[in-house]
Write a structure and sequence with these properties.
By secondary structure, the protein is an alpha+beta fold. The chain has a four-stranded mixed β-sheet. Strands 4-3-2-9 form a four-stranded mixed β-sheet. 48% of the residues are buried.
Length: 392
Amino acid sequence: MKAEDRHFYFTSESVSEGHPDKVCDQISDAILDEYIKQDKTAHVACETLVATGLVVVAGEIGARAGAYVNVQDVVRNVVQDIGYTNSEYGFDFKSCAVLSALGAQSPDIARGVNAGKKKAQGAGDQGMIFGYACNETPEFMPLSVTLAHQLVATLAAMRKSGSIDHIRPDSKSQVTVEYVNGVPRRIDAIVLSTQHDPFVGGYSYKKLREDIEEKLIKKVVPTALMDAKTKIFVNPTGMFVVGGPHGDTGLTGRKIIVDTYGGFGGHGGGAFSGKDPSKVDRSAAYMARYVAKNIVAAGLAERCLVQIAYAIGVAEPISVFIDSYGTGVVPDEELTRAVRQVFPLTPAGIITTLDLLKPIYRQTCNYGHFGRKGFTWEKTDKTAALKKSVKK
């Protein structure tokens, strides 16, 4: 039975920029951006850990002589921008300790990755990378993850503007969509949990729930997709005062499904943040999304999964796989042939095509790396070339 013939429910989640794992992603990518500003070909693998009052940054750097990043300043600026500005939160930009353990990149890795006069740039590591697109939203993304992102992104904007009071930086969302014959029919459930100030004075759980439902959920979720049976859960445990790095340890790269397609498609397991574009975990994932989105935008499939696999130090991918889930207008083998003809899939080709040697990475961290405007991998400028290349 194909998915188009099924009746099912699918759930995706998102987290805010104040979630401890997302704090780490932003710090790692902010450090990456600072190195790229000084050396656009810098090789960076930066990981971050946060806990109560503590930030630890570690990793490997390969950059030109003289390139220097003040890790203390970068960390504190990121934490401040997110909104951890009050010592009552148990974690704030002024008082947190910052430890750095950044070292040099392994020469064994550099030998396989760096291009030479007679050698193309190889992949920074082995890996299997996935991209996905579908036609159920204008963003060519699954509806469940699109709405989950929009909920926490809008809540963060409201927190910063003051349009919702007593909200702190850490929050999470979850959206369940009911599908009938492969098409989103309605929203079955919404979960929104947000860190908040203590319930004192006139502030109460009732007030929090009213604000979230009236000012946020009804603003973000189309009313046509909700009905009397739609379940809404706001802070299901009631209290969520202790949050952020004070409530839970955070690590870079621990929200890979939030970063991609909310559980749709596939995932090879590689994280994005803190990695320069020589790492195909990141750059090839952007290319795979670019490929999948152009296939769907061209009308060649309603849904599309792309897998690209690499060996460390080898430029050309060792395999390319396309799955249109039976929705393609031509066989998947023909789509694969057309993709290999239209899209450059070597690390150097990807970096050039998507213009990745720029300090753009911190802005990718929050609310998904895909389905958002302003990124090169979200363009649909290859649709004509794909249509011309396929043999119907």
